[in-house]
Design a protein that fits this description.
The protein contains seven helices and five strands. It starts with 5 loop residues before the first strand and ends with a helix. It has a five-stranded parallel sheet with strand order 2-1-3-4-5, with helices on both faces. The chain is globular. Strand 1, helix 1 and strand 2 (30-35) form a beta-alpha-beta unit. By secondary structure, the protein is of the alpha/beta class. The structure holds magnesium ion (MG).
């Protein structure tokens, strides 16, 4: 996997969305590992370093909620963003009570996704490197930019320098 990129596990059973959005994210700050089933996501996370995960809620087999539980149990530091349709917002909210960082409604655009992933990665870097939020915000001000991509790059630098 490419160094100095953020390792993102992306699981969604809608393969067209998985492929198109996965490509857009891979062209940005992410090493994307894209899989179409919860079972594969759990297996993949055992064999690859994953920073954050993007998990679809409704999938055949192990659904997003079960995938979330298994991932958080085995990798407590991993931050997870849930993807959901309008019909299952309640379940998505429940997921945030069970450890998901946040949820995003589908269809979502790239900018919304980058913003959500940035926030999740920020938490991941803070927890992993034991940086308090106040200190982290001071460190991020250095970049003088509010674009999620700038912040993602800065966070990745902080993480790489700390580990
Ligand atoms: Mg689905």
């Amino acid at each position: 996997m490419e160094k100095n990129k953020i390792n993102l596990l992306f699981v969604d059973d809608e393969e067209r969305f998985l492929e198109s959005m996965g490509k857009l994210l891979a062209a940005r700050e992410f090493n994307v590992i894209a899989v179409n089933r919860g079972e594969k996501a759990i297996e993949t996370a055992r064999n690859n370093p994953v920073d954050i995960a993007l998990v679809d809620l409704k999938m055949p087999g192990i659904n997003g909620e079960e995938t979330l539980k298994a991932l958080k149990k085995e990798h407590p530091w991993m931050e997870i963003v849930i993807l959901t349709g309008h019909g299952s917002i309640d379940s998505a909210v429940e997921c945030t009570q069970k450890g998901a960082h946040s949820y995003l409604l589908k269809p979502c655009d790239l900018e919304q996704l980058l913003e959500a992933l940035m926030q999740a990665y920020k938490k991941r870097v803070m927890n992993k490197n034991k940086i308090e939020e106040k200190r982290m915000n001071e460190m991020l001000k250095i970049s003088q930019s509010n674009s999620p991509r700038e912040i993602l790059r800065r966070l990745n630098e902080i993480d790489t320098a700390s580990s």
